[in-house]
Every structure is written in structure tokens, then in C-alpha cells.
């Protein structure tokens, strides 16, 4: 199945730790830390893993703990 890649600036929702999270897309594309396409999201709540930097490479900027990378098939478009 074709997976749609959300645009930077779009809002998405996704499951994380058994709860639905929301955030704004800040990055889409390939990364150096893992193969394939990733969606970088700035989350509303600080349940993420980083501030947009992974292994010394900056992909986007946000507050510490608000950034996360998710596979495109895990995110769903939502309203801001």
C-alpha cells in the first residue's frame, strides 16, 4: 500500500506508549540513524526522545523531550 508522507507544518496524531499523541511535522525524509523515510514530529507533550538532534545531526529544532521520529505509516493527519 502507498504510504502518504505528511507535509512539514501539518499536524498528525500517532500512538505512543499506549496513548494517542499529537504534534506538528518538522521533518520528513531519510535520516543517517536508520534506513527509510522518517517523519520528525514536535509533540505537544514532553514524552519524546530528543530536541530534533539525533547522534549529533540536527534534523529540526524543538524543546528537549518534545521531538520524536516516527515511520510514516504510523501517523494520521489531524487538525491543529
Notes on the protein architecture:
This protein has 80 residues and is an all-beta fold. A hairpin with a 2-residue loop joins strand 4 and strand 5 (57-58). The termini are far apart. 19% of the residues are buried. The chain has strands at 11-16, 19-30, 37-43, 53-54, 57-58, 67-70, 76-78.
Oligomeric state: single chain
Q: Strand order across the biggest sheet?
A: 6-3-2-1-7
Report the uncertain regions. Answer: none
- Mean pLDDT score: 95
Could you spell the SSE succession in H and E letters?
A: EEEEEEE
Number of helices: 0
Largest sheet: 5 strands, antiparallel
Helix content: under 10%
Beta-sheet strand percentage?
over 45%
Total number of strands: 7
Structural class: mainly beta
What's the gyration radius in Å? 12 Å
Straight-line distance between termini = 26 Å
What general outline do the C-alpha atoms trace? globular
Briefly summarize what is shown.
The chain is mostly beta strands and about 80 residues long. The protein has strands spanning about 10-15, 20-30, 35-45, 55, 55-60, 65-70, 75-80. It is globular.
Amino acid at each position: 500500500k502507498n504510504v502518504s508522507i505528511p507535509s512539514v507544518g501539518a499536524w498528525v496524531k500517532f500512538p505512543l506508549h499506549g496513548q494517542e499523541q499529537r504534534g506538528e511535522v518538522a521533518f520528513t525524509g531519510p535520516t543517517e540513524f536508520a534506513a527509510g523515510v522518517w517523519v520528525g514530529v514536535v509533540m505537544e507533550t514532553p514524552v519524546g526522545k530528543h530536541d530534533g538532534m539525533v547522534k549529533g545531526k540536527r534534523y529540526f529544532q524543538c524543546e528537549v523531550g518534545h521531538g520524536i521520529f516516527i515511520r510514516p505509516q504510523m501517523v494520521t493527519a489531524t487538525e491543529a
